[in-house]
Design a protein that fits this description.
Mean pLDDT: 89
Shape: globular
Strand content: 5-15%
Strand order of the largest sheet: 2-1-3-4-5-6
Helix content: 40-55%
Number of helices: 9
Length: 220
């Protein structure tokens, strides 16, 4: 990682949104790819998350880091090159009910948009009925449910059950992800796909739309 990307990672870790924006703008001027700048920010968030898990950082620091990451994304997004969209490739995404953590969700939104998909972001604390009604309204191909809370992962399974109950399960590919989510969980609840990171999600969705069978697609 180059020096400026390391500095971006550190700015995100420190929760310094002003510096993160300044460094991002400088990196763009130096010709660094926007995706690399975002990856630098993600590295800082991953370090902060690890520190939080080890009780070396606490909720206020985590929130500041999230705000700095949001500022970084707002700065870099206008420079991203969008991929060619496929026909009828709308994706509905959101955080599962009870989950208010939107950093990963917004990263997912960015990565899918870069991949050429039309993204409908329902935000945090999204109920099963909201996912389904919006997917119907926009004629979505894929529904993506993210969560950082083990307690909210229950609603990923409930979504799939609800789609089956309505007799429309085969109309949508359902992808799941988030900190506590594993490929094993995706298979257990009958999801169609799982990606470990937001940056892998676009490739996952492309594979799913080309997938002619019912095998679970996992990208780790």
């Amino acid at each position: 990682m180059s020096q400026i990307l390391q500095e971006i990672a550190q700015a995100i870790y420190d929760g310094d949104d002003i510096l993160a924006v300044e460094l991002a703008e400088k990196a763009v001027q130096e010709g660094i790819e926007p995706q690399a700048i975002i990856n630098g920010g993600i590295a800082g968030m991953e370090q902060l998350g690890e520190a939080f898990n080890n009780m070396e950082a606490f909720l206020p620091e985590l929130m500041l880091g999230g705000e700095a990451m949001h500022a970084l994304l707002d700065t870099v997004n206008p420079y991203m090159q969008k991929g060619g969209a496929l026909k009828n490739d709308t994706i509905v995404i959101g955080c599962a009910q009870g989950d208010l953590h939107d950093i990963g969700l917004n990263l997912l939104d960015t990565q899918l948009s870069i991949g050429g998909f039309q993204v409908v972001n329902l935000g945090t604390d999204t109920s099963v009925s909201e996912f389904i009604s919006e997917a119907k309204r926009v004629n979505a191909k894929i529904i993506g449910v993210s969560t950082l809370l083990t307690t909210s992962s229950y609603y990923q399974e409930e979504l799939i059950k609800a789609l089956k109950k309505e007799g429309i399960r085969d109309q949508y590919k359902v992808i799941v992800g988030g900190g506590p989510i594993t490929p094993e969980w995706a298979r257990k609840i009958g999801a169609d796909g799982y990606a470990r990171t937001a940056s892998q999600a676009a490739e996952l969705c492309k594979q799913l739309l080309q997938n002619k069978n019912n095998d679970v697609v996992v990208i780790c």
